[in-house]
Amino acid sequence: MSETILKVAGVSKRFGGLQALSDVGIEIQRGQVYGLIGPNGAGKTTFFNVLTGLYTPDSGTFELAGKPYTPTAVHEVAKAGIARTFQNIRLFAEMTALENVMVGRHVRTHSGLIGAVLRTPGFKAEEKAIAERAQELLEYVGIGKYADYKARTLSYGDQRRLEIARALATDPQLIALDEPAAGMNATEKVMLRELIDRIRNDKRTILLIEHDVKLVMGLCDRMTVLDYGKQLASGTPSEVQKNPKVIEAYLGTGGH
C-alpha cells in the first residue's frame, strides 16, 4: 500500500493584480520523483515558495505524511520535514562543504544555545555526530573528498550536489529541488540523474521543478503541468506528453 507523503489542494496566490496560482493541488507518494513543469511564468516557483513557507498562500490545505501543516515560515517547514534547494545556489560561500552540511543538520539537534555556549559534554558529542553524518552525506552525493574546501571553490555541479547534501541533512520527508540541472553541462546532468535515482531508491521522495523536459520525462514517476498559474494536466510522463492541452501550451498552437 503506497503512502501519501504530500497532499496539497486548492492553493491560490495573488500578487496585486496578478493571479499567480489558481486552485492548484498535487498528491505525492513516498519514494516518488514528482515533476512540476510548465512554460516560464507558469507559477512553478511560486508554488514551490508557497509550499516551503517563503510565500503565504491566499487559500489551500497542506498535509505532510498525513498531518496538516501550515507553511508560514521556512524554518517551521524544515522542522515539519520539507527541505528545498534553490534555482540560484544559496550556500555559505566562505564555509567549508562539511560546515554547510552541518548547518542543515542543526535543524535536528537537541543541545540548544546553553549547551553550545557552555560546550557541555552533550553538546560536544552531538557536534561530533553531526560532523560524522555530514561527511557521510558528502560521500553519498559524491563530493566527500571536498569536505574541507570552501563552498565557493567547488565547481558549479559540485555546488549543486552540496546543496542536495545539505537538504538531506535535515532528514526530510520530502526534498524539493528547484531547477537542479540549470546551468549544468551534459556530464553533470547525467551525474545528477544518477544521484536523484539513488535518492529515490533509498525510499526518499522528491518534488522536482525542471526546465529540462527530457530529464524530467526520464526521471519522474508522475508530474503536473502548470500554465498561467493553473493546472493543465497531471499523470505519468507518457500521459502528460499525449495531453492536447500540454502540447498546445508548449508548442503554442493555441495562439499564446
Automatic annotation (TrEMBL):
Keywords: ATP-binding, Cell membrane, Membrane, Nucleotide-binding, Transport
Gene3D superfamilies registered for this protein in UniProt: P-loop containing nucleotide triphosphate hydrolases (3.40.50.300)
Keyword Membrane listed: yes
Superkingdom of origin organism: Bacteria
CDD domains recorded: ABC_Mj1267_LivG_branched
Organism encoding this protein: Hydrogenophaga atypica
GO function term, MF aspect, one: ATP binding
Domain ABC transporter: 6-253
Protein name: ABC transporter ATP-binding protein
Any single Pfam family the record assigns to this protein: ABC_tran
